[in-house]
Amino acid sequence: MSPESSATPGTSAPRGVSLSGESIWQTPGRRQGGCGRSLHRAGGGPMDAPRRGPKEERGVTVERIVVAARACFAEQGWAGTSLRGVARAAGVDARLVSYYFADKTALLQACLQPPPGFAERVAAAASAPLDRRGAALLEAMLANWNDPASAVVLRSVILTAAHEPLALQQLQSVFRTALIGVVAGSLNGADGPGGEERAVRAGLVASQIVGLFMTRYVWRIPPLSELPDEKVFRLVAPTVQRYLDGPLDR
Amino acid sequence: MSPESSATPGTSAPRGVSLSGESIWQTPGRRQGGCGRSLHRAGGGPMDAPRRGPKEERGVTVERIVVAARACFAEQGWAGTSLRGVARAAGVDARLVSYYFADKTALLQACLQPPPGFAERVAAAASAPLDRRGAALLEAMLANWNDPASAVVLRSVILTAAHEPLALQQLQSVFRTALIGVVAGSLNGADGPGGEERAVRAGLVASQIVGLFMTRYVWRIPPLSELPDEKVFRLVAPTVQRYLDGPLDR
CB contact, 8 Å: A212 with chain B? Predict the structure, then answer.
């Protein structure tokens, strides 16, 4: 079974994974992913939407540019990405990219914004009763990977963080505030553990969730990459729960 | 506390981490890491070793080239790496790189060889008695990250796998044989679990170990990045052990 089989429609793989992963991992050749490929239809002109001035279609155009730029940064890194290349991949005029983004740094920063809903899902899960909080957190993180709009950002931040210090900083910052900070804060009850222990417990929760997602979604290592969500959830939730409120040294 | 503080000498961070991480994460500016920087001493000529013909110093020269190439591929990806750039970073003549490596693919493949001792450490740990095997496996993986020669390769394969399909394949292959295969095989006793369960247990072990190492060593997220090895070991070993021989669904 190849790692890609988990992305076949009809299997148990979450939808977001195949959508977000295709451009980077599922292309047999080199450099034919979302970055090199124009969003124009083959041989055709711009897509069907009527052409409007930059102001009117701002949201759509900016999103097109950011989607293309995420693929470029993730695949080719900072040095290999040019505003012109991003414009080509997005199927827009290069001047439009410069119009919306002052420079490459501003464009990268836009690409690294936390996924929509990410922090809200984690925060909602962290307010579940303590004895169900581990399950709720794992469920929230699975939901983040199953939401295509969220998964594509998570994946691209992870891949870009591998070679871009700015992306690593963004990843560290989201981690510290939206995951470790929120989970540690949720343990801050009257009879809860001290601050250092809270942070360690939250860090352990993060370590298990990150490892699951790296092996299952990013690297796609069987067998975890091939199991249905419900099974993964049953296998891993007890660990997350133990890190939250169980004994830590056995 | 910055993530970098874990690499300060005298703290609890394993030696290999600071050695292997410096060129990629600890440089404030862009592209001043191991790839762009020549291994020559500043302003000087080649290093002290007397110049010999390619045959005699083959091992040393090949290692210099591979070390430089790992940094280049990890930081700048396939497209951003040239044999000429690698030669410059290694401080050797470009013709020497071509002499030892037929092309860029051969050079990348040399960079992706599993770290020395990696598979042996995991295999030795997997033959520990079952009730101590989780601790032995975690200890073996910590030893791999604490061994500078091993850590630099692990880190570079992980970073390069983020943008190079060939590196991802190598990572998947090492995972499946040297970690998941070995751990699953170690559970193959007369009264052990069935093949599918063995593989799932081994995958869960890998997920926790990967998550610990991504958050602690690669992304350097506090507080796990700042704890001493012994503490991390005590916190995480019970999870690894439970994945090996404990009940899986609670």
Answer: yes
**Domain boundaries defined on chain A:** 31-111, 118-245
Q: Does domain B118-245 have CATH number 1.10.357.10?
A: yes
The per-residue pLDDT string of chain B (250 residues; one tens digit each, 9 = 90 and over) reads 444 333 333 333 333 333 233 333 333 333 334 676 554 433 334 444 444 555 556 789 999 999 999 988 887 778 788 999 999 999 999 999 999 999 999 999 999 998 888 999 999 999 999 999 999 999 999 999 999 889 889 989 998 888 888 899 999 999 999 999 999 999 998 788 888 999 999 999 999 999 999 999 999 999 999 999 999 999 999 999 999 999 987 6
Tokens, residue B5: 């503080």
- Give the residue from chain A lying closest to B165, CA to CA: A25
Whether residue A178 contacts residue A205, with contact meaning beta carbons closer than 8 Å, is answered with: no
Q: Is A1 on the interface with B (CB under 8 A)?
A: no
**What ipTM score was computed for the predicted complex, to two decimals?**
0.78
Of A165, A219, A224, which has the smallest distance from its Cβ to B171's Cβ? A219
Q: Are B17 and B217 in contact (CB under 8 A)?
A: yes
Nearest to B199 among A200, A223, A248 (CB): A223
Q: Is A227 on the interface with B (CB under 8 A)?
A: yes
Q: Are A159 and A24 in contact (CB under 8 A)?
A: yes
Give the fold, CATH level 3, of B31-111.
Answer: Arc Repressor Mutant, subunit A (1.10.10)
